[in-house]
Amino acid sequence: MRKSDTKAMRARSPSLGRKGWLYLRLMRLNSPIGIWLLLWPTVWALWIASEGRPTPFVFAVFVIGTVLLRSAGCVINDFADRKIDPEVRRTANRPIASGEVAPLEAVILFVGLMLVAFGLVTMLNPLTAQLAVFGAVLTIVYPFMKRFIVAPQLVLGLAFAWGVPMAYAAETGAYPPSTGWLLFLCALIWVVVYDTEYAMSDRDDDLKLGIHSTAIWFGEMDVAIVAGLQLVLLGGLLLVGRSAELGLWFLIGIAGAAAFGLRQLWLIRRRDPEKCLRAFWNNAWFGGAIFAGIVLDYIFAS
Fold first, then answer.
1. 35-44, 83-92, 122-131, 207-216 — which is least confidently predicted?
2. What global pTM score does this model have?
3. Is residue 13 predicted with pLDDT exceeding 70?
4. How many CB atoms lie within 10 A of CB 210?
5. Residue 2 binned pLDDT confidence (cut-offs 50, 70, 90)
6. First to last CA, the chain
7. pLDDT digits (tens, 9 = 90+) for 211-224
8. How far is CA 51 from the centre of its chain?
9. Nearest Cα to Cα of residue 287 among 194, 208, 162, 214
10. Domains in the chain, please, with CATH?
């Protein structure tokens, strides 16, 4: 074999380290924002369901499971969008879109991540495992919904908020009470808020490609609707706090989240794509403020 042929083969076949990095990028582990957004509602629910004393093993399973599930969701999303991402400037360099990872590799990786995640859940009680099956279906279905329904963010909301009933089931062995379902609804609304901000950064490309999103569906009312949803979200969280008998520290956490919400509205007011992305990233702090309020309230109220 000629040296030139050998070099060409090496160029086409990335090293093991390079391949590993491509898989990490495919799972978006280089950008953990999605992990935080998926984790926050789950740990809100764990703390409230356990009255501030979550079982350490359950907490560990949910944290690891969150990382695995979010990674799997990113992989199946890029697989579903493998013909769309090359046409969008922000996503054209993703591993599948750029041709560096084959679609079959992505499917194998997705299946592996889901099996490990489900294996973790089976270490908890049967009800949690049963709920996890529906969560897995939502993870698989969501990436394809943007082609068929005007508000795919609602399906994403179901998927990302599903950690709430699972957390209650893991801690109590039962379905959530009304407080838990209200928290689930709040988490769903929050997902619609931040994923609308995210979709606003891709609106022009999505319109050209015929992709649906709430950013397109809301039209010129997008900023006003996001603001309205934020108010509903904060009001719902206040009701959750009242039902769970949370006090001053929780209210301080809500006030902090409200401040971050105002920051997001300021960023998206002119619909600049880069600033809409910054508003989306800001939600990690929004969720963290609420979690801090819950944790501190249980610490100092006990």
1. 83-92
2. 0.92
3. no
4. 9
5. very low
6. 74
7. 999 999 999 999 99
8. 25
9. 194
10. 17-301 (1.10.357.140)
- For the segment 85-94, the average pLDDT, to the nearest whole number, is 87
């619909």: which residue's tokens?
A: 271
Give the pair of three-digit tokens for residue 124. 């908890």
Here the tokens at position 11 are 């160029």
Three-state secondary structure string covering the chain = CCHHHHHHHHHHCCCHHHHHHHHHHHCCCCCCHHHHHHHHHHHHHHHHHCCCCCCHHHHHHHHHHHHHHHHHHHHHHHHHCCCCHHHCCCCCCCCCCCCCCCHHHHHHHHHHHHHHHHHHHCCCCHHHHHHHHHHHHHHHHHHHHCCCCCCCHHHHHHHHHCHHHHHHHHHHCCCCCHHHHHHHHHHHHHHHHHHHHHHHCCHHHHHHHCCCCHHHHHHHHHHHHHHHHHHHHHHHHHHHHHHCCCCHHHHHHHHHHHHHHHHHHHHHCCCCHHHHHHHHHHHHHHHHHHHHHHHHHHHHHC
Q: Is 181 exposed, middle or buried (0-12, 13-18, 19+ CB in 10 A)?
A: middle
User: Which amino acid belongs to residue 237?
Assistant: L
